[in-house]
């Protein structure tokens, strides 16, 4: 029994959890198995090897943890830092805010760098903090690659450059929850020490896996980090890695098979093609927003996110009503505005396993909803703008025959 | 292993097989069972009772046959007619043509009434034939409710009226393959003697069930009909109905559960709402075609089909290229033009479990393909026209909470 | 909603439909697709090629028909014979009886050769009939390879030998419904002209595919055979084979993917290993029956079937009660006795995707049911006998790592 | 692609993860959804209400946490205790040992009470500790209801009685991972303060949910407990409960639907019937072990577990070889001996959605493996003993028609 039903498909455009490809749903459609048989370790070995590719790392060590993104955050922090440690962290929206809240609750001393919601992390302040910190009291710079609440992408290469400019040894911890597998992410090149994502985002799986990747420097830090941790302790994983049985506690058999299938699809399409597809759909979405005469919550092009677009509605409209109506009338799931931007923005997630016509159906739906709630949109305008771009830029995609 | 893969969903807009609702896919995701256990007859009883509702009959007897629409045709004909029998049948497109071909191969003497492909059945000729046939040599009038190749819907109430006007006792046999469960169909009211459909059409199941419903008069006719038949013989079904075990040979367990789920969804939505949804999506499609400046293959509004629209392309375009390109570039499946209209039309199926945004995604795709192949379409125009209509006419659909 | 529920798995031991392997269930867990896209013909080509392997033919032409075994029978007969044609056919149980009934209803002149139910086909009578038939009035010898109702396997090599001994040109038509993919079947070597099976038997799929394979001689015969046929006409298939689109009417997308997966599993295990596994499980079952002190319905070892065992119960027990009780008490599905042996035998199907412990669970269940219904079985005796054999004869089976 | 394949089903008899019922697999066979739509909270409300029933509590507050049993432990401990707190905890096998290890790593001061592996918790020592502790320095008594490594069930009613005898206010924390939904568990009656289980055990779901239930006293304790916790903090859940949106971070949509289906099945069967079924299968297993002449690792009947039986092998046999061989030869998954009993015991899990014939198949398999590895078992003996018991004690189970 489902708890809702509308004819036809649900159009899932929240920025997570996202659409699961059918081959992945099929791969997970199975009974449990003994995870101590020879089969599961054999598969796990391939998963750990292949997961590194989505982080673009060869030296990192991945941990596939039965948890959510929030748990992955905690794993990243508690394994590398000690209570009282100073971190620099940036509030640019609800998820970066929640991560900082976690950092504070874990007892770190957080230098909170605030920006307007709709701007990227203020890296000038980072630079000045690092410049001042000749004593290296800053133990970690924590940053969200892509803020899911506002659709803002931070420039990680620049963060690395600033760290390098000041030869600062702080750990570089990155939340890649709504970026990894959708936006180009280069762990090794950017010297990221811990990167993490969640299965229900661009990997296009169900929720349930927090995937964390640690650089050798992070692994080294974990040996002295004093934060309390048991469930999230990397040590337990490393012990079972060396035993060749891999799992300190029971993994989800279904998610392992799902991850295997998801990675296979990503590699078959080609990671760079996946990024290009996200760029294409992101651009098309922004062109539609522009055509509707609405503002992108993200204030500058340099921060535009190719995985989620937060659309600012006029003051006389409650963006939550747009989301409600989309669901009830068109079986369309859009993202709510959160916290500071609640009621002010709605969000279109365009990440994960998605194609042009799915997005165009969503955009057409948004147009009708806008009209429903009294915004004087010209019907078809956003779709026209998106089509004009997509028709020129979409490659031939269907393959295998 | 699939034999093709493109990122995101396939957009399935051929006029059959159509999209299967997820709850139905779930219901069929199962092992085989003993069909002679008490469970399967118990379920079958509900199916036979409920299937009558989709034909709008109380006196008809349904047969759920493990076959396709072609087999259902053969079941309808061979059980009610004898070799040499005279039938009147109408060619208005490829499927009505194939049915006539079958009638001829089965040895009937067919009065073939031809119309332009794009017109409905010529009922004036029917009237004159019946008028002349005072000896009642015509044993059956065979008509396709909805011609899937051209998107033409015939007026069955009018056929009945003509039969009544001449008090003609001919059997009234109807192919409802692409109409039943999508267009209003009234077996009892229209005095239809045999009606039939296939599971992969508006029932939104996989292929594999030919569902035939026979009036008491048709059952009576079957007692003397001399056409050879064994697999398709209703007698075997009737025998097992009276035994309470229902199946003369092994049914597909999966399709039985699927049919149960499909009927449940149809009744939850409400058959009249289902028809209204098809009318809405059909109208939206036709408005888009008009906005593109293209012609509907169907020549008059009275014949417009709410389940499939055949779109005529300009002579300098090969419609097959539109279909090919849709599949390769946008993961969109459109219907080819068949036989006389091959290369000249492509078809948009808008039947089965489908909603507004799915259709709008398809229409946006068609616009881009039209541009791809050199037709000077104004991008967004069709979607705009469809949206303008849909935004005013779509009810709140998502329910259960 | 299921129509029954017991905790744990259903133990499916009817001789069809049989257990579907999980990878096959997964492969079929999918939406519909356009069968006219490039993907489906590409897959179909591999299916037609690979299906020949299960018949052990290189020269035969297979037809994958959306029907059941009964339909496959009709396809075999109507494509090769004409009304009035003389056939020789053998009654050895309910299914051979039904096939003869079909032959008679199709208008053939059938020489019915009867045997006790529990014996194989009387091939001496065949020999004498062929000897007498110097005028070659016998057009076909029709025989069931494995009679599912009694668990009797006929010797097809011997049939061929008799045909050859008399240089008789009659067509050799074989029902391999409960044998092909389980028992060794050699179409080319045995000169079989039409062989057929159903998807729900040893192929371990849902019901819905009748698979028929025709020798060049049978194809030749089809050009002059005068039986009425339309749906079952090979001609339509051959036309679409030459077009490269393969399907004269809509196939079940799900069954195509299922067949692909089922064949892959069979070839991975190896057909000869599959036969050996069936031989092993058949032998184990017979040893259990013997240990229980019950009689096999099959009277001689030369006819013992490795796919189904019909067990004779003492006269004071109604075998139908055994089946009923198995289902209600132990979630075990056994086969009923049919027609002449109704109430007298129950059947254990041991064909398809099955292994040792599944069978042993079934045998243990049968022992408890026998006790339930008052038969003085020694609990554990049948399992002990089966185990003693299996423990010595089961190879290491689990692979891939 | 699976990483192993053997013909027929895998026989899953590890004590977790256990077999998932087909209706639950079906319920989880779905795409993601927006968990902020009205549908998911509506379903969640029913889940939270119904989950209380499996704990037999009306006053407890449940938390459904995206984690494993290990995480559920951590949630129970960190929310109710502070670093330095004194706990009493019992080692009776590997899992109780791991829980104590966690307690120590979390900084508690654990009074470890050891027993032989194969004995229950030494409650006399608990009594004496409580007697001495007039200052109430003991903050919690932590006990595993059922030790999965040895198949030992502790008497929780007795623990409560001892606490009451000494009017000791210590919290009563219970790991019910391999008991809840299989063994009778009475949270309110026994005054349990925190009880927990994991989805992959008797609930018969995939891994991924740690389900924790807190008494009002535990909730009160959580307000002052000083253990570091963020991901596992109940406070976040309570906040979202009061908001009516329920989830502080993304839940697994699939597991929610799976839990709904699993609870529905449990309630349909009836919890007391579920317990009786486990008792029946546990007893049958022990009778088989006895018949084989082998020892149960559990030393006294009062501790016999109805969810898992650890079987002691003779010294000349390596129990790991039994497990390996079961998997490779019979597609049977048994549990390894862990830690102190590695190589000495193998384990048969008989919990979750399981029936008689499944267990009997497993027992027959174990007999053959025992023979394989050189133990002089009498084939059939264990099955005979189990059948003799089951045949007298199994109710009619299959229902709905």
TrEMBL record, chains A, B, C, D:
CDD domains: AGAT_like. It holds the Pfam family Aminotran_5. The lineage of its organism: Eukaryota, Viridiplantae, Streptophyta, Embryophyta, Tracheophyta. Gene3D superfamilies: Aspartate Aminotransferase, domain 1 (3.90.1150.10), Type I PLP-dependent aspartate aminotransferase-like (Major domain) (3.40.640.10). Belongs to the class-V pyridoxal-phosphate-dependent aminotransferase family. Residues 15-293 form the Aminotransferase class V domain. Its EC number is 2.6.1.44. This is alanine--glyoxylate transaminase. The keyword Transferase applies. Keywords: Aminotransferase, Pyridoxal phosphate, Transferase. It comes from Salix suchowensis. InterPro entries: Aminotrans_V_dom, Aminotrans_V_PyrdxlP_BS, PyrdxlP-dep_Trfase, PyrdxlP-dep_Trfase_major, PyrdxlP-dep_Trfase_small, SP_NH2Trfase/AEP_transaminase. Its cofactor is pyridoxal 5'-phosphate.
């Amino acid at each position: 029994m489902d708890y809702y039903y509308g004819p036809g498909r649900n159009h899932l455009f929240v920025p997570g959890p996202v659409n699961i490809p059918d081959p992945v749903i099929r791969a997970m459609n199975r009974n449990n198995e003994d995870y101590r048989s020879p089969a599961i370790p054999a598969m796990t070995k391939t998963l750990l090897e292949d997961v590194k590719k989505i982080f673009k790392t060869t030296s990192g060590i991945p941990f596939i943890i039965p948890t959510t993104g929030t748990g992955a955050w905690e794993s990243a922090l508690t394994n590398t830092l000690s209570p009282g440690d100073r971190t620099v962290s940036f509030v640019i929206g609800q998820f970066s805010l929640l991560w900082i809240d976690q950092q504070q609750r874990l007892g770190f001393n957080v230098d909170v760098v605030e920006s307007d919601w709709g701007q990227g992390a203020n890296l000038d302040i980072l630079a000045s903090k690092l410049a001042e910190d000749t004593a290296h009291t800053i133990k970690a710079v924590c940053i969200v690659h892509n803020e899911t609440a506002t659709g803002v992408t931070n420039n990680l290469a620049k963060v690395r450059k600033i760290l390098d400019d000041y030869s600062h040894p702080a750990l570089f911890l990155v939340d890649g929850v709504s970026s990894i597998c959708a936006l180009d992410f280069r762990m090794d090149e950017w010297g990221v020490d811990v990167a993490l994502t969640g299965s229900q985002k661009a990997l296009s799986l169900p929720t349930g896996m927090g995937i964390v990747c640690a650089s050798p420097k992070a692994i080294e830090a974990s040996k002295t980090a004093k934060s309390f941790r048991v469930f999230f302790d990397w040590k337990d994983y490393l012990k079972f890695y060396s035993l060749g049985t891999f799992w300190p506690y029971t993994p989800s058999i279904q998610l392992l098979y799902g991850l295997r299938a998801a990675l296979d699809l990503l590699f078959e399409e080609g990671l760079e093609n996946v990024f290009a597809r996200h760029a294409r759909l992101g651009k098309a979405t922004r062109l539609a927003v522009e055509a509707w005469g609405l503002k992108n919550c993200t204030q500058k092009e340099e921060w535009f996110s190719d995985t989620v677009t937060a659309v600012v509605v006029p003051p006389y409209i409650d963006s939550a009503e747009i989301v409600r109506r989309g669901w009830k009338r068109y079986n369309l799931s859009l993202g709510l505005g959160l916290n500071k931007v609640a009621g002010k923005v709605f969000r279109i997630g365009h990440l994960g396993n998605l194609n042009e016509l799915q997005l165009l159906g969503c955009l057409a739906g948004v147009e009708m909803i806008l009209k429903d709630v009294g915004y004087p949109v010209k019907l078809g305008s956003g779709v026209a703008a998106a089509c004009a771009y997509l028709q020129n830029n979409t490659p031939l995609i269907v393959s295998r025959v």
